[in-house]
Amino acid sequence: MTIPLLTLSHQQPFWKFRTHRVIANTTESTRNLCKSTLYLFLALATPFIAYRCFNSFTMFWSSSSSSSQPATKIDAESLRRQRINSSKLYQPDASSKVPVIYSSYYDISFLGIEKLHPFDSSKWGRICRFLMSEGYLEKKSIVDPLEASRDDLLVVHTEAYLNSLNNSVNVARITEVPPVAMLPNWLVQMKVLYPFRRQVGGTVLAAKLAMDRGWAINVGGGFHHCSGGRGGGFCAYADISLCIHFAFVRLNISRVMIIDLDAHQGNGHEMDFGNDERVYILDMYNPGIYPFDMTARNYINQKVEVVTGTATVDYLDQLDKALAVAGSNFAPELIVYNAGTDILDGDPLGGLKNCPFNDGPGEWRAA
């Protein structure tokens, strides 16, 4: 079959010539639009791709170096200690700063999607800006933490769990924000999980600064619903468990008390330290709200259940008694205090009625 050659002669009608011009112009416009879209995508994706490539190269180089060593069977505890001792999370120098830890990378925001969950994922920055505006804190005096690496996270987390975070659907379930499931995972890593990993680095560092200076505050963190093998409740990494394991090895301590005053039960660290006599857990929570983890409740050393509607005076009275009992039962070298703001009146999650400052005429107390 012969295909006729298409030509345009002077005998052909002028409207056909115009049709060819329109098609050519349309094709050129489409080509330019595709180019612009491609350039925009590359501009947005290039920094993250470079970051991921650098991390991949670093991990490959580390694994190559370790594989060149004689093959020996390393038990889990030895491997954990090895990872902790080689970590860089204790490196930031805070000698000339106050032991308050925060990074601008803590805050999570992307096209307003974060507002689909009642958890305020930008409160950390607002806290620091308020403290600076009131003259309590200077920007240059704040300690900037490092991001927790994969090896750091493997101190507590399983390979399977960390690999599951490469699926956006799993991250959406953990953060309880369904639209996250539709985002490409590289974007989820950059906009959601990277801020979490910086906060993990801050919590781990806080233990060291507390031992050095007597106290320390990580403005972020406190992901107490996450354990070594499971995340949930907007908690993707078990920063409290990591902080304590680092302290056992690097700070040479053996007694840690967790005082968890978030309105929700801290089922993550409870599952991680359920049978560990080195850790004493005092958890004061509302049993009528998430996570309803009955198994984890069996691992709480001192359980204080405050029902929905509990107000300041009653709350503080129960807390004072609980602290007295905890002090008589356990002598900690380090206290990890998880300060949940959801115990305050008006919080959409906690169901409690605490006033943040005063509970009566002439009496001022912090809840």
UniProtKB/TrEMBL annotation:
Secretion signal, residue range per the UniProt entry:
none
What's an example GO BP annotation here?
Answer: epigenetic regulation of gene expression
Q: Supply the InterPro entries for this chain.
A: HDAC_classIV, HDACs, His_deacetylse_dom, His_deacetylse_dom_sf, Ureohydrolase_dom_sf
Q: Which domain of life is it from?
A: Eukaryota
Residues annotated as domain Histone deacetylase: 117-353
Task: Name a GO CC annotation attached to this entry.
Answer: histone deacetylase complex
Gene3D superfamilies, A to Z = Histone deacetylase domain
Any idea which UniProt keywords this protein has?
Chromatin regulator, Hydrolase, Repressor
Task: Please report the organism this UniProt entry assigns to the protein.
Answer: Gossypium raimondii
Supply the PANTHER family for this chain: HISTONE DEACETYLASE 11, HISTONE DEACETYLASE HDAC1-RELATED
Provide an example Pfam family for this protein: Hist_deacetyl
Say yes or no: keyword Kinase present.
Answer: no
In the UniProt record, does the keyword Hydrolase occur? yes
**Which cofactors?**
Zn(2+)
Q: What is this protein called?
A: Histone deacetylase domain-containing protein
Please give the Gene Ontology molecular function terms for this protein.
histone deacetylase activity; hydrolase activity
